Amino acid sequence: MLRTLLYKSQPSRFYSTSSVKQITSNQLVSWSNEKKLYSDLIVIDVRERKEIEQKGKIKGALNIPLSPKLFSAALSDINKDATVVFHCQSGRRSDEATLLAGKLGYENCFSLTGGMNEWKGPVEPFMNNHSPWVHTILEKETETAQYVVTDLVTKEAYIIDPVLDYDPFGPSVNTLSAKLLKLTFTL
Rhodanese domain location, by residue (predicted)? Predict the structure, then answer.
């Protein structure tokens, strides 16, 4: 009964991991020595910020929490040609992230078997640099970019839209009335 209720409330949380490509801790350490970090190899930590603060992180790993509202959008900024390795604390969330990445067109993605519980490489302590996340949205009609700047700690988002007036039949794009909008969101 409880499983049925959970499935109805969050059907995306029930999935088969049989098709998830796995990588061991030793393999990832080897790949880290062979490949260029951030261009050929991207390691993504899908744990929440609080977990990273408590347990540390794999050196060079990017943090993209497995949040339904932000994960897909943040992942779209990652190079689809790179080898992407997801990890969490135990491997369950990284399996889910790997499946989701595959559905979004990432072909060379892996889940770290056992997550941080099995990690045998160096662990960096958490450094509170409090940097925001910037996502670029390209408007094909206007050939301009919009930017969404979010801060997961303060739960603030800024939408920077340099073009708010656009006449598809006009000769040019008017930027005279561009504004900065401040929005607060909750996760």
Answer: 37-125
